[in-house]
Each structure stands twice: as C-alpha cells, then as structure tokens.
Amino acid sequence: MDTDWAAAATGFVIDNNVLIIAGSLVGASGIILTKIMCKAMNRSLTNVLFGTMEPTSATPDADEVYKTVKAVSAEEIALLLENARRVVIVPGYGMAVSRSQHAVRDLANLLEARGAAVEYAIHPVAGRMPGHMNVLLAEANVPYDKLVEMDHINPTMETVYVAIVIGANDVVNPVARTDPGSPIAGMPIIDVNRARTVVVIKRSLSPGFAGIPNPLFAAANTLMFFNDGKKAMLELTSAVKEL
Questions:
Q1: In the CATH scheme, what is the code of domain 62-241?
Q2: What residues are annotated to the active site?
Q3: What is the CA radius of gyration of the chain?
C-alpha cells in the first residue's frame, strides 16, 4: 500500500497524471482491504501495524493440547459423508497452497449428487487477504450462492452433519472465544466446533499465523486427516465413489 501512495506522490513530482490516478486508486483499495481485515480480526489498525501475534507465557504446551488427537483415513471419513445430509466446507490458506479448489468442488458435486446439501463457510480473512477464498472458489466455478459468510453460517452450525476444514487454523480456533489472554482473543471465528463432526485436513499439527495450539484439533467431535489438501480431496472423492 505504501508503494501505491509513493507512486501517486511521484506522479505529482514529475507531473504524470497516469501515476497519480493509478497510485491513488490502488492505494485507496489497499485502505479498504485493511479496514476489512481489521474488522474481521476485531483489532485496531494500530494493533495490526505495530502489535504482535505470538505465543505468550500462558500459552499451553502443544503436546498437552494435542494428546487426544484422533487421526483417520479417507475411507473412514467417506463412511461419515455417506449419510451426511448437510456438509459445510471451511477453506483456508492450505487450500490455496495446495491449489485444491477444483478437487474441493468435485467432492462437493459428488456429495450433492448423493443428496447432501453442501455449502462453503467463508471467513473474511481466511487465506492471505479478504476475498482470497471467494476468488479461488469462483475460479473453480463454485456457485456464488453456496459461499456463506461467517455471520450467516455460525447460527446454523449445530445442524451441520460434517464440517470439513481444509487448511484453516486461526479462523476456527475456539481459543479466540475462551481465552481472553490469547493473541487472537476476541477475533470472530467460524464455529465449526458446534458441528456434529469436524474433519480437519492439515499436513501436520503446526500452528497457524498466531503461533498457538488449536484445541479444536483434539476435540471429542474432531477427526484429523493428515494430508496435503489436494491429495486429501482426491482420496476422499475416490473413497466416496467406492461406497
């Protein structure tokens, strides 16, 4: 964003209208995106610019948090999906890194063909910028009306049979609600923990941007599928087809 305003300032110095207009437009867009991110994280601009997100002395040890983690296979998840009437997919940065949006769409289409209702729960700052997940799913031709914003999906999460979290971490971490001393305290999250069953797809138990453990991964209703995002989606699709 600083570069954009610098370009606009340079335009004034050298009397170049193109630089002035382009720099101002892109700079203004950056301000809007920053405001959206601050609201979505429930943090002030000052805190975003100068604050830190890192574990504190009160942050629990990851080994202790994750001692009840349950790992499962694609075949076991397929059995859950076979009778699931409502499935919500929660995409995160892991989906972007693995470029698995098309594979995610294919699994969703298969589940819908079998009678399930499938939606996508979108957190405003999932990924690396506002709208990141929307753009990726649009690229995969996912209908826009299936993308449900966080505030609209949360009140209905208790009716979700299976919530599939693919590569998201901090935006589904219940610590944001339960621990006032957490680095993400007060940040709005998607309440996947309220679904009947949660399937989390991650390559490992590594922390998200905030650097803290996520107790969701060890919850009684959570199953971990340790895999690359795209590979996981392909394996799940294949397992569901074989039922």
A1: 3.40.50.1220
A2: 170
A3: 20
Burial of 137 (0-12, 13-18, 19+ CB in 10 A): buried
For residue 116, what pLDDT is reported?
Answer: 96
Q: Which amino acid is at 115?
A: G
Kindly report the pTM of this predicted structure.
Answer: 0.79
Nearest residue to 68 via CA among 240, 207, 216, 183: 216
What the block records as the tokens of 188 is 């709005």
CB 67 within 8 A of CB 142: no
The DSSP line for 124-167 is TTSTTSTTHHHHHHHHTT--GGGEEEHHHHGGGGGG-SEEEEES
* CA–CA dist 38, 132 (Å, integer): 16
Domain ranges of the chain: 2-50, 62-241
Contacts of 42 (CB under 8 A, 6+ apart): 186, 187, 188
What is the three-class DSSP state of 208?
coil
How long, in residues, is the chain?
243
pLDDT above 90: residue 8: no
Torsion over CA of 100, 241, 158 and 63, rounded to 10 degrees? -60
Is-contact 111 240, C-beta < 8 A? yes
CA distance 3 to 176: 33
pLDDT at residue number 106: 97
**CA 198, CA 186: separation in Å to the nearest integer?**
22
Cβ contact 211:55 at 8 Å: yes
Is the model more confident about 61 or about 137? 137
Which residues are within 8 A (CB) of 145 and not within 5 positions of it... i.e. 6 or more apart? none
Inform me whether the pLDDT recorded for 61 exceeds 80: no
